[in-house]
Amino acid sequence: MITCGTYRKAHFLNTPEKLDMFSHLFFACIAEAGWDIHAWAVLSNHYHFIASSPSDPDTLRRMISKLHTLSAQDINVQDHQPGRKVWFQYFDSHITFMNSYLPRLKYVHENPAHHGILPCAENYPWCSASWFARNAKPGFRKTVEGFKTDAISVMDDFVAQAPMRVERMNGVSSHTEESGVKPPHSK
Prior knowledge:
single chain; alpha+beta; Alpha-Beta Plaits; two-stranded antiparallel ribbon
């Protein structure tokens, strides 16, 4: 499991376009490095993902470095801030027990709801909650949903915000435009 935040927790991924750009780049870097993604959540100032490593887990450092370099360059071009530091550091956990994996899997899927961006994470296009709901076998989904996440230790003291151009309709967030981000091909 990986958690990474922006420098000084700044909300650099604050528009649907930036979230889309980062998500596309994230999936491309994951695929190139040969990681098998299980869950992801990209928010305005941090992201999480859970993935299985290829035979060489040392590819993680190179993959994260490439992702951060390319995304920082793109964000800084969009914001007219050349050379600005965008990413801080990442934390990784090697999960070895199913009873550690399943609550963390739920935590990552539900991260937008955890941060109060919207009540149902399945409605947030930059996380895996809706992908999981559509693709997981019903029994496995029910098992994951049954786990509590309040006792797990995740470096997640971020205060995230909804991306700009999100409308509030009857108390429910709805994006004004559909995200072009497609879920990765994964188990």
